[in-house]
């Protein structure tokens, strides 16, 4: 349980009440303003800034201000004080201020600040405007105690300090600012408005304090300030010479001004204020610097805050707040934290001095009271002097939470108790008498009342103040004597005594009424036997005996003979003895006629004012008095009161003549008073700001209103003049003029600005200028005027002139600069201009040599476009454009020394219009060159054979392209086709035969021609009504021996012979030179190959028709054994596989199909004898299931596996022999990451440490691995190495090479796969010559040669078959 945990309920109640008294938005905004004459400029700026401040505070969603205070002061007066909830009235009172006197230093500023704090609510904002130090600085202690109790902030805006900042009158400002967490800003007169802009931002509700330090010397300091998530806005305020602020977030990022850091105030040699929005909770770094004495304040906006109080006793009296701890006693600190939600908690409390250094730290415990907001610290002994409190803890999310007290606390040195008791107590015999004694002390004390050495009652214990008393029921002679009051504390004992004695006793006489001229005797009877002295007084003055009418009789009676009207009044008799004094009184009334006396004020009133007209009526008997208006009596319900006429909320109709009437039996009297209505004095308007020429007459007018009409006084600066008109105004007449209206109801003030200037004029004429081309030249335009005229340049020809202000400078003159220039000078009072003619000599316009307007080139060929400059001075600048766009030199285009544009390899994209443009000051010259890229014609292949029924329309397409567009012609055989109704040609080159006939059958040729060449394509058309082709004739050729396929044709006209093979034209693609068509039309094969086997067709066509013959060519091997059952009419060939040439087949893991071909034997198809695939039967092989087609020529695998790769052989046999064909199958496996290395993980490593990042993947073939860092490929460097290696298997041993980057540290991760199965991961650590490779599973080990030097090292694994491939990134420690 925390110390005294159960006894702080009273203190908690006090803190709760103090928080309830100051809710958010309950603060006061107070301006304490020095109204001496030197503060005129400050007052004008404060008037303007106040409206912005009020507008800003009223626009906030949470209103921080509840009322407004204005306290003007000067020497020796303070006030009148204004406190209002109406912001408009506050501004009006501020505008009504007027400066007076001037030059006084110091001023009564401490008393003014105290007045503002007294009338302000707790937690208020108080701003002091002055240019002088304090005169009444000795009153500071009471003000400091008041600030500590009210927790208000005081900010000083000083535009002067009387020249001595070491004087106690200035140092008191520093102490007030430090105590209230305020600051001092030293400014020039013109900078007050800048501070007021900051005040707009500074006045906010829920403000909390984070750091407050004051430093006597300059320097740089860095502070760690935790920002918790509840902070919405943080303000950093530094006051001092040459201020500077730098802020870093928890990640180390420095905040930039204008972006993350908002600058609220920047006065180079006085202050800097910045604001930021904490976007990340954590510890922020704030670095400040200043060259001299400075202060730092860091505040924020948050709903989490605290209040603290002190107690020196186990019991706490909630009626006595403990804002100031006492030295020399154990003090308990009680903290009430608001806005902190569970499980957030406070952990400790620290005491700081004003320089920011920790004095001591204590843990905090949650109180045992019913609320979790109350925290108690262990008892402490407070240090001497001023200190601040900081509470530390964490919020509900665990973020650090720091808060600082809003004021400094001052420890108090306790003194002796102060005892008060009346020194002389008069007691009357037989009557009760109470003897009371009170005392006060900073520490607890006992209070005792005694007589002699006897205690009258038991002493009582009090904390701060208390009193004791003793009652004497009936006073007697024995009660006379001394009584003593004693107060005892730990500091010492204080005593005070009182003497009790019975005074004489008087019998009060009765009042006396007499008429003028009578004799009057007034007597006082004194009871008792003790000697006494009796004296008389009249209306508080001693009655003067011996004046001829007044005398004292022997029995001490007072006689007046005769009385006069002026003798009436109150008479007192005083009896004095050794034991005391007794007093009695009587009234002497002299009968007199009624009389009336009316208080002459007020005689003027304003609308809404409360009026009291006092009337004093006398006479004896007392007359009856009434009030009359215009001679008519006012009734009681018409605001009439006895003796006083009370008019509430007066209106103009209440003006008039009033009289007070008194009457009695002796007569009557009446006296009157006149009330005049006075309207509020205001300045309706003044002449707006004027700008006049020097020497002109100026009239300043000021329109005012008020009743009676106010008096008008004009001010300029600090001087007061009654001026309305200025004759022959001069420059020194410029300035701010103020019009003040003075009336009985107050004053009003308005200002206007007068500026006296002169029109622009040239002090000397401007002359023309001549310059050579390329030289620099300046055109001067000197002008005078007030204000300084603005000079602009223009050209007479209207061309734009950019960036000319003042003298015109041309670094290199050109013909384009030659013109007539106009210098124009203008200010508010006029405009003048002058011309300057600039002539540029020694120039020539550019000219380009003529060249061919069109350049043609074939694709891929180099080309240069000429641009030769014939003339131009200065030498022209040259540029190339293509189709109006700038050509940028690069890899494709280059500009040669002669200016020509060169293209190494022209392409179709280069075609277009190129322009060479040369320019100098006199103009420009352009020349266009058209670049044409010629492309030889190209015909897209189409159908080779076209069949059609007789009478059907036939379309033969010729898809030809080229540049320029080729012309298309058609020929049938060797005869060109002429266009006719039978043959029609479309624009795209398509030949149309609307109605075909057998005579149209034949071979058609399409020819495309342009300037770059020609292209030809043949297209066959075989009509179903033409000649019929017979069955192919089988032909057997011997491998490597010449063979001829006969095709001898006859016809008229001579037919055209065309060979085709299954069924493409034989010569449409390049063929080996062993193919040749003989003059007879036969086809000769010089050296037949197995791949030449196939169906060959010879077609002959002319205008009369066509005919064809087909051969089935088979190529036989060199052996000659004949198979049974094969015909011998032709040479029976060896069986051959008719397929594409043998090639290595590559497949991904999927379904595949191997098409082998047809196995033929001899000329008879039924004699073919397909044989099974060679090698191990496919049905017994490992891997995926394999299906063989019935003919044996197709092998199908459903799902290919790695075990399926290898060589497949198809064998085909018959009686004539056998043939085989091999297919090599490789199975590719896509890359795949292994062991989860494709997952992104976070890796941490110490600074200067080493790090290995592993990336392992499998695939066939072995994949290539590339590392990237922030999107860029990783390249080897001093600190980064790529480790890679390849282990191969030979026999039963595994070895390989791995790169070793250094000799001091290396780590390698290797994947071992003996016999095709993974056994685990191995690690290698280079720790010495005997280090070996250790593996995680199966106990696999490897011998390793240590890294004796950077380079490659060997890895040897005996008795293992393994393979390894991969790549690792090795990051060595050190700076990147």
Automatic annotation (TrEMBL):
<feature type="domain" description="Ig-like">
    <location>
        <begin position="760"/>
        <end position="839"/>
    </location>
</feature>
<dbReference type="Pfam" id="PF13927">
    <property type="entry name" value="Ig_3"/>
</dbReference>
<dbReference type="InterPro" id="IPR007110">
    <property type="entry name" value="Ig-like_dom"/>
</dbReference>
<keyword id="KW-1015">Disulfide bond</keyword>
<dbReference type="InterPro" id="IPR003599">
    <property type="entry name" value="Ig_sub"/>
</dbReference>
<keyword id="KW-0964">Secreted</keyword>
<feature type="domain" description="Ig-like">
    <location>
        <begin position="1040"/>
        <end position="1110"/>
    </location>
</feature>
<dbReference type="InterPro" id="IPR056475">
    <property type="entry name" value="GBD_Hemicentin/VWA7"/>
</dbReference>
<feature type="domain" description="Ig-like">
    <location>
        <begin position="503"/>
        <end position="585"/>
    </location>
</feature>
<feature type="domain" description="Ig-like">
    <location>
        <begin position="594"/>
        <end position="676"/>
    </location>
</feature>
<dbReference type="InterPro" id="IPR036179">
    <property type="entry name" value="Ig-like_dom_sf"/>
</dbReference>
<feature type="domain" description="Ig-like">
    <location>
        <begin position="937"/>
        <end position="1023"/>
    </location>
</feature>
<keyword id="KW-0393">Immunoglobulin domain</keyword>
<dbReference type="InterPro" id="IPR013098">
    <property type="entry name" value="Ig_I-set"/>
</dbReference>
<feature type="domain" description="Ig-like">
    <location>
        <begin position="1135"/>
        <end position="1226"/>
    </location>
</feature>
<feature type="signal peptide">
    <location>
        <begin position="1"/>
        <end position="20"/>
    </location>
</feature>
<dbReference type="GO" id="GO:0005576">
    <property type="term" value="C:extracellular region"/>
</dbReference>
<dbReference type="Pfam" id="PF07679">
    <property type="entry name" value="I-set"/>
</dbReference>
<dbReference type="InterPro" id="IPR013783">
    <property type="entry name" value="Ig-like_fold"/>
</dbReference>
<feature type="domain" description="Ig-like">
    <location>
        <begin position="1231"/>
        <end position="1300"/>
    </location>
</feature>
<feature type="domain" description="Ig-like">
    <location>
        <begin position="681"/>
        <end position="741"/>
    </location>
</feature>
<dbReference type="InterPro" id="IPR056861">
    <property type="entry name" value="HMCN1-like_VWA"/>
</dbReference>
<keyword id="KW-0325">Glycoprotein</keyword>
<protein>
    <recommendedName>
        <fullName>Ig-like domain-containing protein</fullName>
    </recommendedName>
</protein>
<dbReference type="InterPro" id="IPR003598">
    <property type="entry name" value="Ig_sub2"/>
</dbReference>
<dbReference type="Pfam" id="PF23560">
    <property type="entry name" value="GBD_Hemicentin"/>
</dbReference>
<dbReference type="InterPro" id="IPR036465">
    <property type="entry name" value="vWFA_dom_sf"/>
</dbReference>
<feature type="domain" description="Ig-like">
    <location>
        <begin position="846"/>
        <end position="930"/>
    </location>
</feature>
<dbReference type="Pfam" id="PF25106">
    <property type="entry name" value="VWA_4"/>
</dbReference>
<keyword id="KW-0732">Signal</keyword>
């Amino acid at each position: 349980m925390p110390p005294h945990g159960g006894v702080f309920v009273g203190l908690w109640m006090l803190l709760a009440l103090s928080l309830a008294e100051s809710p958010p938005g309950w603060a006061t905004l107070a301006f304490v303003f020095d109204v001496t004459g030197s503060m005129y400029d400050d007052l004008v700026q404060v008037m303007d800034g106040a409206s912005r401040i009020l507008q800003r505070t009223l626009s906030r969603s949470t209103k921080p201000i509840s009322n407004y205070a204005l306290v003007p002061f000067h020497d020796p007066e303070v006030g009148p004080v204004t406190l209002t909830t109406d912001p408009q009235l506050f501004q009006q009172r501020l505008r009504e201020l007027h400066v007076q006197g001037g030059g006084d230093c110091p001023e009564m500023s401490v008393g003014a600040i105290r007045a503002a704090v007294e009338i302000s609510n707790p937690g208020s904002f108080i701003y002091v405007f002055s240019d002088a130090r304090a005169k009444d600085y000795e009153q500071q202690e009471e003000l400091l105690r008041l600030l500590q109790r009210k927790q208000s902030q005081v900010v000083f805006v000083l535009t002067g300090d009387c020249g001595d900042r070491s004087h106690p009158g200035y140092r008191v400002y520093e102490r007030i600012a430090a105590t209230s967490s305020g600051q001092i800003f030293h400014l020039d007169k013109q900078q007050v408005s800048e501070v007021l802009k900051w005040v707009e931002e500074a006045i906010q509700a829920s403000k909390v304090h984070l750091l407050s330090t004051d430093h006597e010397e300059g320097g740089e300091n860095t502070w760690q300030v935790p920002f918790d998530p509840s902070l919405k806005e943080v303000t950093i305020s530094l006051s001092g010479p040459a201020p500077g602020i730098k802020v870093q977030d928890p990640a180390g990022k420095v905040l930039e001004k204008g972006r993350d850091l908002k600058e609220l105030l920047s006065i180079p040699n006085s202050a800097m204020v910045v604001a930021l929005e904490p976007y990340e909770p954590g510890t922020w770094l704030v670095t400040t610097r200043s060259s001299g004495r400075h202060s730092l304040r860091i505040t924020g906006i948050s709903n989490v805050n605290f209040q603290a109080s002190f107690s020196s006793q186990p019991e706490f009296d909630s009626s006595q707040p403990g804002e100031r701890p006492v030295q020399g006693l154990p003090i308990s600190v009680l903290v009430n934290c608001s806005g902190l939600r569970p499980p957030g908690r406070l952990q400790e409390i620290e005491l700081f001095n004003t320089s920011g250094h920790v004095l001591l730290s204590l843990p905090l415990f949650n109180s045992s009271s019913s609320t979790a907001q109350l925290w108690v610290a262990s008892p402490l002994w407070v240090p001497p002097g001023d200190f601040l409190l900081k509470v530390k803890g964490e919020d509900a999310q665990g973020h650090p939470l720091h808060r600082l007290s809003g004021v400094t606390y001052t420890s108090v040195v306790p003194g002796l108790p102060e005892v008060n008791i009346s020194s002389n107590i008069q007691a009357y015999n037989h009557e009760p008498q109470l003897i009371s004694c009170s005392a006060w002390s900073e520490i607890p004390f006992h209070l005792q009342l005694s007589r002699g050495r006897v205690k009258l009652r038991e002493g009582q214990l009090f904390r701060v103040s208390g009193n004791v008393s003793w009652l004497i029921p009936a006073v007697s002679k024995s009660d006379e004597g001394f009584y003593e009051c004693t107060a005892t504390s730990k500091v010492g004992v204080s005593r005070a005594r009182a003497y009790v004695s019975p005074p004489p006793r008087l019998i009060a006489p009765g009042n006396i009424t007499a008429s003028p001229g009578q004799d009057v005797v007034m007597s006082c009877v004194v009871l008792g036997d003790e000697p006494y002295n009796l004296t008389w007084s009249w209306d508080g003055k001693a009655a003067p005996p011996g004046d001829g009418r007044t005398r004292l009789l022997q029995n001490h009676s007072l006689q007046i003979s005769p009385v006069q009207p002026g003798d009436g009044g109150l008479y007192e008799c005083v009896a004095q003895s050794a034991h005391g004094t007794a007093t009695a009184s009587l009234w002497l009334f002299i009968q007199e006629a009624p009389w009336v006396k009316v208080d002459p004020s007020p005689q003027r009133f304003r609308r809404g004012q409360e009026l009291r007209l006092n009337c004093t009526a006398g006479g004896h008997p007392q007359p009856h008095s009434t009030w009359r208006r215009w001679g008519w009596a006012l009734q009681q319900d018409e605001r009439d009161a006895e003796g006083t006429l009370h008019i509430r909320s007066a209106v103009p109709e209440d003006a008039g003549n009033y009289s007070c009437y008194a009457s009695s039996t002796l007569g009557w009297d009446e006296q009157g008073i006149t009330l005049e209505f006075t309207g509020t004095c205001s300045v309706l308007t003044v002449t707006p700001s004027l700008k006049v020429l020097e020497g002109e007459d100026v009239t300043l007018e000021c329109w005012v209103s008020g009743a009676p009409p106010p008096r008008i006084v004009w001010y300029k600066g600090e001087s007061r003049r009654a001026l309305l008109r200025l004759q022959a105004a001069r420059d020194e007449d410029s300035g701010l003029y103020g019009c003040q209206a003075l009336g009985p109801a107050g004053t009003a003030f308005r200002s206007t600005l007068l500026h006296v200037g002169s029109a622009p004029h040239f002090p000397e004429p401007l002359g023309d200028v001549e310059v050579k081309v390329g030289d620099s030249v300046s055109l001067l335009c000197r002008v005078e005027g007030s204000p300084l005229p603005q000079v602009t340049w223009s050209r007479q020809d209207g061309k734009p002139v950019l960036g000319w202000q003042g003298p015109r400078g041309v670094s290199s003159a050109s013909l384009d600069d030659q013109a007539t220039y106009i210098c124009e000078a203008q200010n508010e009072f006029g405009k003048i201009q002058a011309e300057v003619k600039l002539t540029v000599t020694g120039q020539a316009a550019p000219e380009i040599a003529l060249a061919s307007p069109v350049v043609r080139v074939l694709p891929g060929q180099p080309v240069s476009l000429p641009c030769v400059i014939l003339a131009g001075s200065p030498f022209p600048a040259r540029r190339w454009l293509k189709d109006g766009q700038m050509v940028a030199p690069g890899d494709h285009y280059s500009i040669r020394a002669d200016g020509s544009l060169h293209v190494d390899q022209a392409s179709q994209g280069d075609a277009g219009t190129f322009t060479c443009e040369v320019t100098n000051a006199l103009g420009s010259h352009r020349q266009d060159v058209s670049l044409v890229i010629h492309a030889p014609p190209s015909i897209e292949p189409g159908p080779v054979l076209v069949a059609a029924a007789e009478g059907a329309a036939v379309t033969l397409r010729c898809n030809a392209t080229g540049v320029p567009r080729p012309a298309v012609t058609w020929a049938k055989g060797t005869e060109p086709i002429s266009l006719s109704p039978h043959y029609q040609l479309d624009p795209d080159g398509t030949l149309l035969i609307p109605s075909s006939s057998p005579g149209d059958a034949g071979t058609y040729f399409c020819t495309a021609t342009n300037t770059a060449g020609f292209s030809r394509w043949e297209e066959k058309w075989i009509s179903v009504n033409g000649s019929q082709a017979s069955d192919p004739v089988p032909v057997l050729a011997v491998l490597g021996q010449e063979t001829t396929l006969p095709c001898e044709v006859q016809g008229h006209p001579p037919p055209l012979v065309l060979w085709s093979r299954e069924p493409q034209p034989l010569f449409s693609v390049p063929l080996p030179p062993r193919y040749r068509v003989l003059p007879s039309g036969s086809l000769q094969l010089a050296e037949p190959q197995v791949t030449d086997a196939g169906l060959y067709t010879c077609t002959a066509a002319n205008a009369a028709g066509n005919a064809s013959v087909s051969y089935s060519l088979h190529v036989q091997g060199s052996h000659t054994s004949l198979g049974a059952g094969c015909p011998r009419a032709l040479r029976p060939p060896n069986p051959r596989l008719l397929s594409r040439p043998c090639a290595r087949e590559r497949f991904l893991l999927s379904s595949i199909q191997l098409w082998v071909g047809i196995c033929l034997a001899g000329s008879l198809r039924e004699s073919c004898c397909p044989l099974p695939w060679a090698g191990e039967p496919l049905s017994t092989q490992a891997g995926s299931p394999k299906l063989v087609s019935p003919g044996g020529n197709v092998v199908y695998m459903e799902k290919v596996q790695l075990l399926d790769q290898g060589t497949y052989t198809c064998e085909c046999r018959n009686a004539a022999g056998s043939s085989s064909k091999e297919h090599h199958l490789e199975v590719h496996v896509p890359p795949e990451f292994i062991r989860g290395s494709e997952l992104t993980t976070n890796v941490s490593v110490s600074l200067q440490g080493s790090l290995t990042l592993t990336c392992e993947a499998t695939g066939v073939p072995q994949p290539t691995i590339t590392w990237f860092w922030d999107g860029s490929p990783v390249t080897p460097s001093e600190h980064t190495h790529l480790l890679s290696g390849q282990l191969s298997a030979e026999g039963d041993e595994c070895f390989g090479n791995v790169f070793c980057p250094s000799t001091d540290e290396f780590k390698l991760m290797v994947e071992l796969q003996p016999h095709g199965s993974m056994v685990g991961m191995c690690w290698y650590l280079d720790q010495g010559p005997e280090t070996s490779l250790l593996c995680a599973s199966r106990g696999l080990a490897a011998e390793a040669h240590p890294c004796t030097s950077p380079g490659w090292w060997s890895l040897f694994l005996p008795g293992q078959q393994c393979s390894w491939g991969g790549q690792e990134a090795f990051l060595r420690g050190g700076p990147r």
